[in-house]
From TrEMBL:
Residues 109-130 are annotated as: Disordered. It comes from Drosophila melanogaster. This is GH25848p. Residues 40-208 form the Knr4/Smi1-like domain. SMART domains: SMI1_KNR4. InterPro entries: Knr4/Smi1-like_dom, TPGS2. Coiled coil: none annotated.
Amino acid sequence: MMNKKLSPEDAFYENLTLGLIRTLSNVPRVCNVTLERRQPLNACQLVNWEQRHCVYLPEDMKKFYLSSDGFILNWSYQYAPNDIRRVGHIHFPHLLQVTLLRENIETTSSHSSNSTAVPNSNSDVVGAAGSSQSLPAPIATGKDKWGNATPIITAKSKIFEINNVNEVAKVCMLYESTSSNNPKFYLLELSTLSWQFLADTFSEYLRMAIAHLGLPYWELCFSTCGLPSWTEQLFLLLAPHLLEEHEPRRGRVLNPACEHPYNIIDPNIFRGKPKSVAKATATSTKQNHK
């Protein structure tokens, strides 16, 4: 039997997820792989978001949202014949859901610095709320647990929440200055307000989510608190190499040796869906309203 030819829209999401849907569908006990597709933003909506927050989105992120206003990929795992649970999850929010987190960080930092934080004499981080209020020591250590530089938070910094990870951490897009259009992506651990570096670019963060198969709370692989035990069991079952002590992702090695190949996202896939798809969607919408 010949393979069914993919529609332009199917091909777009196949390329966007680097074939992850097909890969997961072939993994034993993984089932109910679903992808929530979304319409693209128009340029006006994107500019409105930038003007509201007084920052410029990086080019790869702009192209992503002009192609699809986020997406959600879910999958389930069959623990027993009658025990199927949804565990896998990749969530890229609607752009309107990418919200400013800065005020919350300032408030929490202020309370922490007045109670438990010990000043760090080696810190070169400026207090977020002003010169008289310093951020707590965990934020100002200069290096995360993997040796990557932690961000310098100043009055010009802007922090946006991308995802909440099990209420213990947040994935943040951080502009160290509003004049920059190259934000970096960090994991903010809420218990200590410490930063762990995740990715230099939006495309890299997207690729990391796919490389980790959307396994639950995969971002906590890069945290100091680590994965919940039940999640670690899933990693050991489905992707044990991701837990190796010297796994290249831990050291942020982006060009590893050939025995650890990486799929690369082609920026050309970040484009508007073909006109034929857009017309078909519009026709379907009109028919549904009749």
